[in-house]
Write a structure and sequence with these properties.
Order of helices and strands: HEHEEHEHEHEEH
Largest sheet: 7 strands, mixed
Shape: globular
CATH topology: Rossmann fold
Helix content: 25-40%
Strand content: 15-25%
Distance between the termini: 53 Å
CATH class: Alpha Beta
Length: 206
């Protein structure tokens, strides 16, 4: 596996007549790979970006929408009503990721896949090779938001994580029920018993 986009291609390369929605284009690396899949499988790709990325690729199988991906009124009129694959790689902020995921999830077919980019904070932690406090915080927050969503919807989709580089969350839809709202997961991390354990471990032995 040369880079992490290869992981996605392995998952979708054999889907016939594939319909893909890509949120976030940037330099078009993923866009070009998705177009290859579409050309091999009689598929189509719709990409959305707030910047004008209309020249990153030339293909009759590609439609570019110059827009913020949360302009739902505009985008819903253009994208296919039923999608096989959604790739979320736009604004990496947990509340935005949650908003666009919940909206476009309804367009995803049963057994369809949604992949969310940049969910691993590990490369950005202190003294790691991409050491960056903001990216560490935002990726960890996005990861937690996805876990909170899954915790309320375990019967609705499967969740996997891929931790190469900045990571992916891989969501597979298993029914057509409406998703429940994400909620904070109650944690005992700072409960009395765990605080006592931490204190006891730090206490010097005589």
């Amino acid at each position: 596996m040369k880079n992490k986009i290869d992981y996605i291609i392995q998952k979708i390369q054999n889907i016939k007549n594939i319909k893909i929605l890509e949120l976030g284009v940037q330099n078009g690396l993923s866009t070009k790979r998705f177009i290859e899949v579409c050309e091999n499988n009689n598929g189509s790709l719709t990409s959305v970006d707030i910047d004008d990325c209309s020249n990153v690729v030339k293909s009759d199988r590609w439609k570019f929408i110059h827009s913020s991906d949360d302009d739902f009124e505009k985008i819903d009129k253009i994208i296919p009503a039923s999608l096989d694959f959604i790739f979320i790689d736009s604004l990496h902020e947990p509340n935005h990721v949650e908003k666009v995921f919940y909206h476009y999830y309804s367009f995803l077919k049963k057994n369809g896949i949604c992949i969310i980019d940049d969910v691993s904070w590990l490369p950005y932690a202190k003294d790691q090779h991409r050491d960056n406090e903001f990216s560490e915080y935002i990726n960890r927050s996005t990861f937690n938001k996805i876990c909170e969503t899954y915790n309320e919807n375990k019967e609705n989709f499967l969740l996997e994580f891929f931790f190469k580089d900045s990571g992916y969350a891989i969501i597979t839809k298993i029914n057509n029920l409406t998703l429940k709202k994400a909620n904070k997961i109650k944690s005992r991390e700072y409960g009395p018993k765990n605080l006592f354990r931490k204190f006891y471990k730090r206490k010097p032995k005589k």
